[in-house]
Amino acid sequence: MIKDITIGQYYAGKSPLHRMDTRMKLVLTLVFMVVLAACGRATPYEPTTTITTTTEATTTLPQDETREIYHTVTARVHPDMPEFTFTLRGVWTSRHSTFSTQDRTDINSIEIRDEDNTLVQMIDGLETHQSWMDGRFELLDFNQDGYLDMQLVILSTGVGSLSVPSYFWLWDNAQGMFMHNDQLHEISQTFNVQLEDDGRVLAQARASAPGGTIREWYVSENGEFVQVEVHSYTMEWSGNDNDEVIHRVFHKQRRNGQWHIIEDREERHPLHD
After folding, report:
1. Which residues, 6 or more positions from 124, have their beta carbon under 8 angstroms from its beta carbon?
2. The whole model's pTM is what?
């Protein structure tokens, strides 16, 4: 059949499309063209982009802790006296920050009782700021009268400092109680006060010069602490270019109420030999 058809020649077919009315064919042709045009204007395909947001975990700091604490020390102030129990009461606080945790102990009272649990003395209204408690309270005989005295550190100044502000109470046997000593308390604002093996009170501090130390010794006389020896060593630089280091040593002692110079010298050494 294809061999008998000339291209462009009308061929009378018998299908439903061929038998359809001519006007309907025209309408369907127009509809087909509109559909093709609408498909051409369809939204082009766009790939779906997935955005993932990562949130870093936030570290939650522990809450600050505060609790009441107490620390007890038992000792005899004198061999002939009953045993006393010293109870230090205060507040322990632990503060947390991003980089560290800081513990602090604040002692606000000292309660003293004898062997029968009878209250001997209550010392309150104290203000201390310590990093720890053990070793911050001591019983020593500062005035060498045979009775133990009390020392309580007020402020923990750290290893790099020689000044250790402290409270001092000396036992007054006539009144049967501890009495605050203003003189040692004042010295401790600048010096680290200690009791030497020979019974003298040693006060030492760093010199104001770039380097060096100052030591002062005291003994108790008639209820007062009297200075009996001073030894200072300082080191500093001189010259516009700090080309020399100067060492100064000064040492004096008090004997029979008079001061005697033991050593007083200065040495200069070049920094660059």
Report:
1. 108, 109, 110
2. 0.69
